[in-house]
Amino acid sequence: MEELDSNAPKPPSKVLTIAAIAVLTLLAGGGGWLVGGLLAPPPPKEQVEATKEPAANATGEEGLPKVATEANGVVQLDPITTNLAYPSENWIRLEVALQFDGLPDPKLAEQIHQDIAAYLKTVSLQQIQGPRGFQYLRDDIQERVDLRSDGRVTNVMFRTFVIQ
């Protein structure tokens, strides 16, 4: 019996197994890089040079120009974070932008911001669940904005809406 055990082949060592896996990983990575370079060649030089020198936008910052600026009649309100009426453990975060008909009025925008924040404190989770509940919330906020602004705000744009 001892003779059979001595003639049995030994399993490969752990170092040899790790080295084989490392070599295969490097070959797979190199092959992926090569195939990726063949399938998606680098962009033309004109496109690379155009992205190096971005133009200044309406706010004076570099990058893509922003459409939602006060010059275009759009005012981004500060984020509204408050707890719901029921269950009070749930919080809501809402970011809204207002589109004015003509020049924006910052004082009116702040009044609308406070009105929306006060309204959200009266809403329960059951009222705003699902797509229909979200649409009701949008309609209610739009109606409040219309009443507060006397038609000077033409559109309420939801940027983010999170319930936690």
From TrEMBL:
It comes from the Bacteria. It is a single-pass membrane protein. Pfam families: FliL (PF03748). InterPro entries: FliL. The keyword Lyase does not apply. The keyword Transmembrane applies. It is found in: Cell inner membrane; Cell membrane. Keywords: Cell inner membrane, Cell membrane, Cell projection, Chemotaxis, Cilium, Flagellar rotation, Flagellum, Membrane, Transmembrane, Transmembrane helix. The chain crosses the membrane at residues 15-40. Residues 45-64 are annotated as: Disordered. Belongs to the FliL family. Controls the rotational direction of flagella during chemotaxis. This is Flagellar protein FliL.
